Amino acid sequence: MLFEDEEDIFTGGSPKAKFFDIVYNANRNLVESELEKLVARVCALEMMLEERMDADEMEEEIRKLTYLPSKDLDNCTNSKYIELTANILTQNE
After folding, report:
1. What pLDDT does 67 receive?
2. Is the Cβ–Cβ distance between 15 and 78 less than 8 Å?
3. Domain boundaries in the chain?
4. For the chain, first and last CA: distance in Å?
5. Helices 55-67 and 28-52 meet at what angle, rounded to 10?
């Protein structure tokens, strides 16, 4: 599995650690652009959820998914860090 040994990803360090290394050293405009895209995506997903449930139900579902230990959530989080890092690096060349 891709995330079994996080210390080997990107030749040392976790995807999260490498993401922050890149964020602090990459072109600020590129980083801002990627973060703006991410926030817009989160907002779109929240709007989609709000169409299907009320705000309290949505918050409860999010709380369940984020506070319980989950390998799927960990894998998704690591994948998102890798994706964001790759997006910034490919534009920063």
Report:
1. 84
2. yes
3. 1-27+53-93
4. 29
5. 120
Q: For residue 38, which of 49, 27, 50, 46 has the smallest C-alpha distance?
A: 46
Angle between helices 28-52 and 71-91 (to 10 degrees): 140
**Phi, psi angle pair for 63, to nearest 5°:** -60, -45
Residue with tokens 């490919």: 90
58 Cβ contact partners less than 8 Å away, ≥ 6 residues apart: 46, 49, 50
Per-residue pLDDT tens over the stretch 54-90:
989 988 988 888 887 788 889 999 999 999 999 999 9
Q: Where are the alpha helices (DSSP H) in 1-93?
A: 15-25, 28-52, 55-67, 71-91
54 φ/ψ angles, rounded to the nearest 5 degrees: -80, 170
Non-local CB neighbours of 36 within 8 Å, separated by 6+ positions? none
Contact 88, 34 (CB under 8 A): yes
